[in-house]
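Shapes recur. One chain:

:::
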Amino acid sequence: MPRRTSVDRPLKPLLFEILLALASGPRHGWTIVRSLQDRSPGTRILPGHFYRTLSRALADGLIEEAPAPSRAVVDERRRYFRLTALGQRVAAAEARRLEALVVESRAKRLLPSRPRS
């Protein structure tokens, strides 16, 4: 039975990163990992932790398996994933929560008032 996922509860960083990677469209596991590593160079993602988090996101209904994109090379071993409507709502709620933290950090002068360009 899937666990209830609350849009009000903060997400673990790896789960949010996975949802963020899938926000641009369906991907298979390895391209999700590459996306995370590209966003945070030097970050080491342990396969067991990554695939447990991916499995939990599936079980919680945040993501679902998707057919391979038509432009993809067909490889039976690759499983593609995409966000569900719930996953989209949960990711958006987390992004708003993080945005509020950035706003408060700027108000308390922990960050510059304007983002650097």
